[in-house]
Amino acid sequence: MTEAVNRQFYLHQRPEGRPTSDDVRRRDVAVPSPGQGQVLIKNLYFSIDPAIRGWMRDEPNYLPPIELGAPIRSTTVGRVVESRHPDFAEGDEVWGMNAWEDYSVAEGGTLVKIPADNQYPLQYYLDIFGAVGMTPYFGLLEAGQIKSGQTVLMSAAAGAVGSLGGQIAKIKGCKVVGLAGSDEKCRWITEDLGFDKAINYKTCGSLVDAIAEACPEGVDVYFDNVGGEILDAALLNLRDHARIVFCGAISGYNAKEPVPGPYNWWQILAKSAVVQGYLVSNYFDRFPEGVKQMAQWLEEGRIHFREEIVDGFENTLEAFQKLFDGTNEGKMIVRVEDDSAA
Amino acid sequence: MTEAVNRQFYLHQRPEGRPTSDDVRRRDVAVPSPGQGQVLIKNLYFSIDPAIRGWMRDEPNYLPPIELGAPIRSTTVGRVVESRHPDFAEGDEVWGMNAWEDYSVAEGGTLVKIPADNQYPLQYYLDIFGAVGMTPYFGLLEAGQIKSGQTVLMSAAAGAVGSLGGQIAKIKGCKVVGLAGSDEKCRWITEDLGFDKAINYKTCGSLVDAIAEACPEGVDVYFDNVGGEILDAALLNLRDHARIVFCGAISGYNAKEPVPGPYNWWQILAKSAVVQGYLVSNYFDRFPEGVKQMAQWLEEGRIHFREEIVDGFENTLEAFQKLFDGTNEGKMIVRVEDDSAA
């Protein structure tokens, strides 16, 4: 092992705007050794998520900022190559919060073992069975408290979280309206995924009016991944006692100036609405329940999703940048190298 | 009755910034006649509230905007002079949502009868037994879900709502920190009202740091009457799963440009916090329970409050303007004329 190289993307400087190869750089370092209670894993898949952009800021957040010089934090799926933790053995497949690098050392307690009889592609544990699937699952059922008959408005509805969320809300008997940025995305979520309506926010004219037309009785639950102008338009369409699941704010992640909260902030009071700041990690203990439910829906053909798998460690930064262009289709994942070579 | 004059303040034009006598004008009109199911009352006291400024805007709100030419909407205490509603008789004392005018016609269903055996000053039904007392009562207990041992941060803590709120939170076993704009106000809320700490936000330097020092374990419940920079400072001091009771935003009421939501909006997500848009009117059915509790605390000497009573109908606008200077001490009320003359 000691002669192997550990390729790594690390944070050289904090990005202003869209992260560049000046901000996120590559280097080769030595493969680390696990200490007592730790596990060395070979990473097979990286999860490429908008949230990572937030961790690059030097601001208070739900996780500490990525330190300058540190590898880029990310959820990964990997295989145990050396274990000094009693719950893990060489060859175990695991997922957890690691980094964009070939080899990570993790505390055993932070890793989740993938069942030995797993029949699904490994990267599912970075999407439908991982945070991407659990985010809309607990976000709608717990933070959003959706109920049958309610109107749910999904932002980024053709995205990984939004497309799963809309399908979950449909299964639960809600009317679901999705916001997406192209006609093809709108077609996909309505025709293939069963959303009731879709709004192309780039071409619809007044988004406030378009939401009002699609949701004539108002919005009961707005699931917000984006913030900004889309959030502001949603706020003007709330029903009394509406709930806003505040899950992300991608519109502001690359901003160079401080981004204010919504201009229509007052509507929260006017409609006696609730904004629930939402982190899927609060439901970590309940992931097995969510995974079981998602697997069942998957087998029943009631849930569909898309992955965009980018091959090769060296393409990781480019895959990340693509998130902010809105051009990716489905959950973005990097396959570090062929499984067979791992 | 028909020869009496009905003096009235009405909305001539929508204010930009602080309302002036060009925006809110006086006129004399005829005394109206009640229709079927309605009641004519002689107003004795006007409640002078920041919320009225919001109703002057032509924007969606929890009540419709005051129309141009219409009298200024306000809670009042009055005496029935003519009733065409079975529940009210001449001479009954009542409170309800009426207007800045000598005589109002109200739907019977919108008025609350003051008990015939009432032993308190009539204007108490505009403050401690009215919306001003019920706002912090239900705001903290229901919207804020305060629990013994929690840290509660009160904005506008020397104001009518804030000063009562802090005392209620103390009775419920919370640690209470108040924000106020003068040393005298800070002295009053700590020495006379029993707040644990007070911060003069005008002289404390960094408000973020001052709150952090006063609330080293973070803020569990922030009661927001003000919005703006004070809200932003509070957001940087939230404990995980904190609750923000969004009750008002006086800092923005006179703004001429759209006021954004808080710059530290992201902290709501980062701390899994809840913003509860709060209208005391949602708890209208439970007012009797709240009034009973406040009366008991009042008799036990556990609740203190201040009123600033301005004498004379003609001084109503001036009293209203004073709210936005931060110079009023206690709940602002206009006594329309001597009770004896009513």
Low-confidence stretches of chain A: none
Q: Termini distance of chain A?
A: 13 Å
How is the biggest beta sheet of chain A arranged? 7 strands, mixed
Number of domains of chain A: 2
- Global outline of chain A: globular
Number of helices of chain A: 9
The helix/strand class of chain A is alpha/beta
The name CATH uses for the topology of the largest domain in chain A is Quinone Oxidoreductase, Chain A, domain 1
Helix content of chain A: 10-25%
- Name the helix and strand elements of chain A from N-terminus to C-terminus, one letter apiece: EEEHEEEEHEHEHEHEHEHEHEHE
The first-level CATH class name of the largest domain in chain A: Alpha Beta
CATH superfamily of the largest domain in chain A, by name, is Medium-chain alcohol dehydrogenases, catalytic domain
Written overview of the protein:
The structure is a homodimer of 342-residue chains. With 342 residues, chain A is of the alpha/beta class. Chain A folds into 2 domains: 5-126 and 305-341, Medium-chain alcohol dehydrogenases, catalytic domain (Quinone Oxidoreductase, Chain A, domain 1); 131-281, Rossmann fold, CATH 3.40.50. Chain A is built from 9 helices and 15 strands. In chain A, the strands form 3 sheets. In chain A, strands 3, 4, 5, 6, 7, 14 and 15 form a 7-stranded mixed sheet that branches. In chain A, strands 10-9-8-11-12-13 form a 6-stranded parallel sheet, with helices on both faces. The longest helix of chain A has 13 residues, at 131-143. The first copy, chain A, is globular, with a radius of gyration of 20 Å. Chain A starts with a strand and ends in a 7-residue tail after the last strand. The mean pLDDT of chain A is 94. The A-B interface holds A 54, 59-62, 227, 236, 246-249, 252, 258-279, 282 and B 54, 59-62, 227, 236, 246-249, 252, 258-279, 282. Strand 13 of chain A pairs antiparallel with strand 13 (274-277) of chain B.
